[in-house]
Design brief:
Elements: E1 2-5, E2 8-11, H1 15-26, E3 31-34, E4 48-49, E5 58-59, H2 60-71, E6 76-79, E7 84-88, E8 94-98, E9 101-105, E10 107-110, E11 114-116, H3 136-139, E12 147-151, H4 155-164, E13 170-174, H5 184-192, E14 196-199, E15 202-210, E16 212-220, E17 226-230, E18 233-236, E19 240-242, E20 272-274, H6 286-312
Parallel strand pairs: 1-9, 2-3, 2-10, 3-6, 10-20, 12-13, 12-18, 13-14
Antiparallel strand pairs: 4-5, 7-8, 8-9, 11-19, 15-16, 16-17
The chain binds NADP nicotinamide-adenine-dinucleotide phosphate.
């Protein structure tokens, strides 16, 4: 097995990981940027980003490409599509074992992000790829002139519903309450869009299919009435779940599994930091992920300097 030594390992190459890499590398650290998938992270699949300061409107993939181009000027070794087998966060030397390599470093930054939560209803998992999708940008074009349902009342659901109107003839937006938590600017656009039909106070019960999705059964929470909406696609956007399974509870997490950090992004393990959507943060945005990464990159460098001083003084 090949062994590779670094000053800092960054797990996850989305905006938080890329920003951590930039700041750690600019502080002079030898950085490994590891991802189980491509470089760029979740925003590569977002339609348009309108709230990243300095860019009134930019495609998600374009912003991520710019982030990657920026770190390419520095000493960052990129390892996309790694299959991670084991992670030791507790020993003084942190180790990440992949199929072909053992990566080691005294500091490690977790930027593994979060994934879409599942509804957990009949017909959901069985129909992934047959009408159930968690990525409107990837699959929206398959629904040209068709009818789709989007579930949820947050920014993701409303933004993706708007995106789907580019293709679908009708987009049902199914939400369990009668008020939305999405930003008001997005709500206004949804209310003004004639293709979006609001289905409020309604909870999904079952996704119906006949080889492919053909409808969704919903229950009205005020009347208990069960109704079926005929549609060819269902896009659940009901919140996020942190990507933490690989850490086997080595770190302190909150009740929803998000990693707890202090203001310096430090976790409960020495030399380990968490940034972006995976940590318990009050705001999950590209701009806050990037800000977390800047703090963690610099803190990792300070930590290594302190460790060095301790060695010199003993
Ligand atoms: P979210 O804000 O947590 O919203 C999840 C929505 O799903 C809520 O409306 C919730 O209903 C509903 N829900 C939860 N569980 C449900 C269930 N079992 N059945 C039916 N409905 C359910 O999640 P999100 O929209 O994915 O956003 C995640 C984070 O990313 C947020 O911080 C968001 O602001 C951020 N984000 C930002 C942008 C942007 O700024 N452009 C874009 C996308 C996401 P209740 O409202 O009743 O709880």
């Amino acid at each position: 097995m090949v062994e590779k030594n670094f000053d800092c390992i960054i797990l996850g190459a989305g905006p938080a990981g890329l920003s951590s890499a930039l700041y750690a590398a600019r502080s002079g650290l030898k950085v490994a940027l590891i991802d189980t998938s491509a470089i760029g992270g979740a925003p590569s699949n977002y339609c348009e980003i309108e709230n990243y300061l300095g860019f009134k409107k930019i495609q998600g993939y374009e912003l991520c490409e710019r982030f990657e181009n920026h770190i390419d000027d520095f000493k960052v070794e990129k390892f996309p599509y790694e299959e991670i087998q084991n992670i030791d966060l507790i020993s003084p030397i942190k180790k990440v074992t992949t199929l072909n390599c053992v990566f080691s470093a005294k500091t490690l930054i977790i930027a593994t992000g979060a994934k879409n939560k599942k509804l957990g209803i009949k017909g959901e998992i069985e129909n992934i790829g047959h009408g159930v999708s968690y990525c409107a940008v990837c699959d929206g074009a398959f629904y040209k002139d068709k009818t789709v349902s989007v579930i949820g009342g947050g920014n993701s659901a409303l933004e993706e519903a708007l995106y789907l109107t580019k293709f679908a003839k009708v987009v049902y937006l199914i939400h369990r309450r009668d008020t939305f938590r999405a930003d008001s600017i997005i709500q206004k656009r949804v209310f003004e869009n004639k293709k979006i039909k609001l289905v409020l106070n309604s909870t999904p019960q079952e996704i119906l299919s006949n080889e492919k999705v053909c409808g969704i059964k919903i229950r009205n929470s005020l009347t208990n009435e069960i109704n079926t909406i005929n549609c060819e696609g269902v896009f659940p956007y009901i919140g996020l779940k942190p990507n933490v399974e690989m850490f086997n509870a080595q770190l302190r997490q909150d009740e929803n599994g998000f990693i707890i950090t202090d203001v310096t992004m430090k976790t409960s393990a020495d030399g380990v930091y968490a940034v972006g959507d995976v940590r318990n943060t009050p705001l999950r945005q590209v701009i806050t992920a990037v800000s977390d990464g800047a703090i963690a990159g610099v803190e990792a460098s300070k930590y290594l300097m302190n460790e060095q001083e301790k060695l010199v003084n003993t």
